[in-house]
Amino acid sequence: MNIRINRGRRAVMRIAAALIAVASMGALTACEGPVPQLSEQSTASAKTPDLTVDQEAKIRTNILNAIKQADDARDPGLLASSVTGPALAVRTSQINIAKATNALTKNATIPSEIEQTVIPTDSGWPRTVYSITTTTEDRQTQRLLVMTQTSAHQNYKLWGVVRLHNKVQLPKFAVPKIGSSMGRTDDTGLVATPADAVAHYADLLANGANSQFAGEFADDDFRTSLANTTATVQQGMEANKGTQSQTFSVEPNAIQVMRSSDGGDLVVAQINSEWTRQAGEGRQSLPASNDETALFGGATPTSTLKVTYVNLIALYVPQAASGAKIQAVASERQTVKVEAQ
Amino acid sequence: MGDAMTDKERKNPRRATIMRGVVTPIFGLLAAALIFLGVLNATEWKPSAQIAATTATDTRYVVTDPGMLSLVDDQVTIDVTSESDAKLCVVSGLSRDISGWIAGHTYTRLTGLSSWTQISTEAAKASGDSQPQDGDVTLEQSDMWTGVVCGTGSVHIERPAESNTTPLLFDTNADAASNVTDGGKLNITLHWTRSTLPDYATPLYFIGGMCAVAAVLCASLFAMHPSKRRKKNANEPRTPIAEEIEVTIPHLVFGAIGSFFGSIASLLHIGGSKRHRRHARRAGTSIAPASERLSSGSLALGSLSSGLQPSGSQSDGPKVVDVTAKNMVAEQAAASGSSAGVPAPSFEVSSAETQAETVAAVAQADAAADGTKPAPARNAKPADADATSVISPADLAAYFARFAAEQAAEEGRGSGTKGLKGTEPEHNEGEE
């Protein structure tokens, strides 16, 4: 009996041991696998563009829709949520003129399609996006749109619109999927820092060929057109024994810089100007154009008329080593205020 | 020989008993268990393809770490429920944009998985200022995001693989100003469907298969005594090398008597396989292997180990003479029946391992060498380093004296032998 009992115990123990062994093997084998862990590389942030092309298109479309609403309503107040800076001053003036003339100037047209967009890779704020549109339906030159985002909680707004000059070549920029770097106003290694280039250009506008910086700049359509207008007005003023004077001043902090592929900077900056015309021999100085007339409205003219302009200039500042001159590639000049003094 | 056979016969049953009675069942059980576990891992215990990990947070903002959403699979589904009545928004954007948006706020990072069902979190604070400004937009209105989903109470998002690299920002109070820190409790669940599951079955199948093979081998091949397996190999047909002559076991065993038959065999130029030549060399240093070889029943004769090779084949590897393929009686009959040729010296040194005994045996064989064809011309090189290490200087001197005498005698025998010398393979001593 004892032998049988021992044998029985042994059998039970063996079976138990076998079950435990099988169970332990099962515990070892049956599982979901190791929990994946984040690698260090996946947390490293690469330098990527701030926006996708689709985002830029969406932002630009929203802005243009808001402008169109303001244009159609002849209500510059609708612009504030989408337009800022010099573009707001220019568009407000254009809409005000359109209210008087019942026609928006052709220069205000902004094509909805673009040829190229330049998206920055910078991480901070403010951020700037350049977009170059196609030509307009009436064969006007392309527009360079400058959109800025001042902080994370603000949306991109249209900061400036300049019309490209004829026969100028814009610098090349990295494709949107790669992105470009935003330049700074004190970038060195260029013919001049962007801030200095704008200041020198303002001096050139004021003094013409007599400017000490005249040698830094290549000829451009904007200066040629302005010189012609000034010469024409000068002839009339001389006939009336009147005088005229223009002043140009750089708007502080109204400057955007984008680094091109070849190392130069494409700078868009606001230069304000005032044109004071004083008629002689007791005559009245009257507005000289439809825009001025529209903006002057029903004000009483005097012998002196002061017209304020917003000039938006796009300058390409090449690298110093290139030996090239600073080139004004696009501009916009808009009368924003006409007042008798 | 008889003792060796008896030992093996006595040992074989015990070996077979152990292999078949103990080892084979162990391997068999292991094989069965592993394959069974493999089947279980492929069926019942198969890892789940559906992974759902959750966490609960109580900050206004929750941010996923880059790469966290694609931790398990490229595609992920996110279910978010908020206990607050405020608008709940989930946006997808660049890390730097998210950091800019939540500047100045304490937020919760979703850093990964602490287990297959739990999302690991970490509290963090974003640097910067959260003061609102005129013209600020809400999270939903901001155009920085590549994707925005908003709702009240709960939000369901399905993220395709191509957009899964950008992190998510959860805002439990999406309509509030940027400086508001209040946020509701948030329950976040991430669902992944694993496209590639860990395969535990195949390794188990493989190891189980190996165990099964091992069990079969233990029950058959390994249960046999090694000598039986070797004998089986020895019965395989071999290609004899006609031109090779080796010092083989007969010389060692039979001494002067055997040398007679050995020299006959050498004159017949009967070779053997490499394998047996190797054994023969070992036999030169030990008698025991020789007796074992002879006990196998194959009576080997002849085959002087010489390294003689046909001219022009010196680059070939060592040749081995199969001593088991010799029929001493037949060769002896053939030798005696043939016409006697001119006795020629037939000293050969097989290799460095050839010992003094071998030299002595061969020297005795030389005197009786009388083959059907003249022996090849040989130029023995006694200066072999290993050979001189075991042959005493006196023996060496005696050998040279005898060798010189034989050479002189050979030159005096006539042109017939000389003519044959030139046609025979050259001595290639020390080929090893």
Task: Provide the descriptors you would attach to this structure in a database record.
heterodimer; A: 341 residues; 32% helix; elongated; B: 432 residues; alpha+beta; six-stranded mixed β-sheet; disordered N terminus; DUF8094 domain-containing protein (chain A); signal (chain A); TAT_signal (chain A)
Q: What is this entry, summarized?
A:
Chain A: This is DUF8094 domain-containing protein. With 341 residues, chain A is α+β, with helices and mostly antiparallel strands.
Task: Give a verbal description of the structure.
The complex is a heterodimer of chains A (341) and B (432). By secondary structure, chain A is α+β, with helices and mostly antiparallel strands. Chain A has one domain. Helices cover 32% and strands 25% of the residues of chain A. Chain A has helices at residues 2-29, 40-43, 53-73, 85-101, 194-207, 221-239, 290-296, and strands at residues 114-118, 127-133, 143-149, 157-164, 243-259, 265-278, 304-317, 327-340. In chain A, strand 3 (143-149) and strand 4 form a beta hairpin. The N and C termini of chain A lie far apart (132 Å). The model of chain A has no long low-confidence stretch (mean pLDDT 89). Chain B has 432 residues and is α+β, with helices and mostly antiparallel strands. Chain B has 3 domains: 2-45 and 200-234; 50-193, no CATH class; 249-423, no CATH class. Helix content of chain B is 40%, strand content 15%. Chain B is built from 12 helices and 10 strands. Chain B has helices spanning 2-42, 95-101, 201-219, 226-234, 249-268, 274-285, 287-295, 328-337, 356-368, 385-390, 393-411, 415-423; strands spanning 50-57, 61-64, 76-82, 87-92, 106-113, 119-125, 147-152, 154-159, 168-171, 186-193. In chain B, the strands form 2 sheets. Chain B has a 6-stranded mixed sheet with strand order 6-5-2-9-4-7, with no helix packed on it. A 4-stranded antiparallel sheet of chain B has the order 1-10-3-8, with no helix packed on it. The radius of gyration of chain B is 44 Å and the shape is elongated. Classes of the chains: A alpha+beta (341), B alpha+beta (432). The A-B interface holds A 22, 25-26, 29-33, 35-39, 42-45, 48, 50-52, 55, 58-59, 62, 81, 123-125, 149, 151-156 and B 33, 37, 40-41, 44-45, 47-48, 51, 65-68, 71-72, 94-97, 100-101, 103, 111-116, 132-133, 135-137, 141-144, 146, 178, 197-198, 200, 204.
